[in-house]
Amino acid sequence: MTQQKRRLEVSEAAWWVIVREGLDRTSIRASAQEMGCTTGVVTHYFRNKQELILFALNQVTEKLKVFMGKAMESSHGAEAFIAMLSPFLPLDTERQDILRVWVAFLGYAVGRENMMTEHQNSAAQLRAMLVKELERLQVAKILRQDINPEIEANALLALLNGVSMHWLIQADRLTSNQQQLVIRRYVNELLVENPVSS
User: Fold this and answer.
1) Distance separating alpha carbons of residues 143 and 132, to the nearest angstrom
2) Are the CB atoms for 83 and 75 separated by under 8 Å?
3) Furthest CA-CA distance within the chain
4) Measured between alpha carbons, how far is 27 from 63 in angstroms, rounded to an integer?
5) Ordered structural domains, the chain, with CATH
6) Which residues are within 8 A (CB) of 177 and not within 5 positions of it... i.e. 6 or more apart?
7) What are the C-alpha distances in Å from 127 to residues 13, 54, 64, 147?
8) How far is it, in rounded angstroms, from Cα 153 to Cα 191?
9) Which uninterrupted H or E stretch holds 168?
10) For 1-41, how does the pLDDT look when each residue is reduced to its tens digit (9 = 90+)?
11) What mean pLDDT comes out for the span 183-192?
12) Which of 24, 51, 145, 159 is the most buried (most CB within 10 A)?
């Protein structure tokens, strides 16, 4: 087994501890227990809790990138853009776990400048992907010419984060269909014509 694969396994163990118990209870020892190994195995790859949870945050970003890429391959135009946004919504168990890890890290990062910087860097990568796609759709005359892609990317991320947080608080009041409808309505306002139907 390669070192990178083993490192991912350790990170995955920490991931499940975060999902179940939150970052307060996530530790080198808890991650080792999750893997059924000694703490020495974990510290071989991660010197401390901070390194471990930073790697877990990186996994959130990478998982979202993969989701976004696959979603765009399955459709075209405005529909592809809507599909690209769907990974940010807690529509299934995997994306719900991604949300829980992201929120846990955000709470942990407040008051820790270096950790917040990492969180901001992660968000910037995802934002850049949205800006690039908005610009591409604008050149293709699918989106209105009077919109600013950077502003719309910020607004969309705020909307996506808000919907996700609302689901986390009141899951029974925000179904998957309702989540998607909110995003679809917003995107339809950006189109030149022919709104994408639900």
Assistant:
1) 13
2) yes
3) 60
4) 22
5) 1-47 (1.10.10), 54-190 (1.10.357.10)
6) 198
7) 28, 19, 11, 16
8) 14
9) helix 149-169
10) 677 777 778 878 888 888 888 777 888 888 888 888 888 88
11) 94
12) 159
In the chain, the amino acid numbered 189 is: E
> pLDDT tens digits for 162-177?
999 999 898 888 899 9
Query: d(Cα 171, Cα 190) in Å, to the nearest integer?
Result: 28
Those residues whose C-beta lies under 8 Å from the C-beta of residue 196, and which sit 6 or more positions away, are: 78, 79, 82, 184, 187, 188
Could you give the percent of the chain with pLDDT greater than 90? 34
pTM for the model stands at 0.82
What the block records as the tokens of 145 is 């010419």
Tens-place pLDDT, residues 96-144: 988 888 888 888 888 888 888 988 888 899 999 999 999 999 999 999 9
What whole-number distance in Å separates Cα of residue 161 and Cα of residue 156? 8
Residue type, 18: I
